[in-house]
Amino acid sequence: MDGPPGDPLLSGLAAGRDEAFATLYDRDGAALFRVAVALLGCRADAEDAVQEVFVGLAQARASLAAVENLRAYLFTALRHAAAKTAARRRADRRRPFPDALAAPEPRTPSDERLERALAALPANRREVIVLKIDGGLTFRDIAAVLGVSPNTAASRYRYALAELRDALGGTADD
Amino acid sequence: MTDPDLPADLAELERRLADRPRVGPSAGLGPRVLDAARVALRPRPAAASWGSWAALAAAVLVGINLSMSVAANADWRLTADVEPEQIDATTDQLRAAAPELSERELRRQALLYRAGAGLTPTVDLNPYREPDRWDVR
Fold it and tell me: The whole model's pTM is what?
């Protein structure tokens, strides 16, 4: 389903069929949203980014036939959309910075601490964790999104987890 | 989802991350996203590109230039000048040929003759045509 030649979902998207877009949203919409929230920290911005991904997909449908890994394609587009949204937010100082709007309720103190530690990681570390955990991507997919080898994606993920563990005080159990 | 090669503490951290409460998309996001995609899928009327406007402007400029050039070189006189001396000479010739005509008619015929002499000759596309009675060719 990730885009081999002849994939009915890909061909449906390339043909601009509404039901193909609905199927794709049902399959990946929630994961895209979770990753967008984790990257942007704001529900409204995350929703805008997901919408931008689907609009971009519709506009570029003619070139979808050449896509080999649709999931990686989607999350790469989301990454670009999130970067653009973040840049807009930096330029527009009237808009609030990432806030608690994206936080689900209720959260335990342990979850709060974990979330804060995750948010405090360097962007490239946080990104690989978010893509793996919130996006449900494989290391092969993450490698395609980040433009690195699968081994690099896997080792970067482990380093990121270790850094997060250290930030939490040396134990995973907090 | 769990990486089997992870050390136990990192595997536990991974499990905590996966189990932490996460915000989900609102119920309205799906319809909103799909509506936006549907709008993007609609064929849009081809808008005139920058190049089209430039080509149109160039064509208009060339047209204006050609019009001005033609206008500047056109001879707007309706007929060739008719010199009074020519009229007089023709009147004399006609008078010699047809002395019965009145002076007024001689003058009129001379004017018509000189005016006709200024017309542009044309090619006869039908050489088998019966000549008209007044055809003097």
Answer: 0.65
**ipTM entry:** 0.81
Q: How far is residue A4's CA from residue B70's CA, in Å, rounded to a whole number? A: 65
Q: Which residues of B touch A (CB under 8 A)?
A: 1, 3, 6, 9-10, 12-14, 16-18, 20-26, 29-30, 32-34, 36-41
Per-residue pLDDT tens digits for B5-57 = 789 999 999 999 999 888 889 999 999 999 999 998 887 766 678 888 899 99
Q: What is the CATH number of the domain that holds A81?
A: 1.10.1740.10
Pair (A5, A91) in one structural domain: yes
Same domain, A82 and A34: yes
Alpha-carbon distance values, B92 to A35, A50, B112, B113 (Å): 110, 102, 14, 13
**Cβ-based contacts of A102 with chain B (< 8 Å):** 23
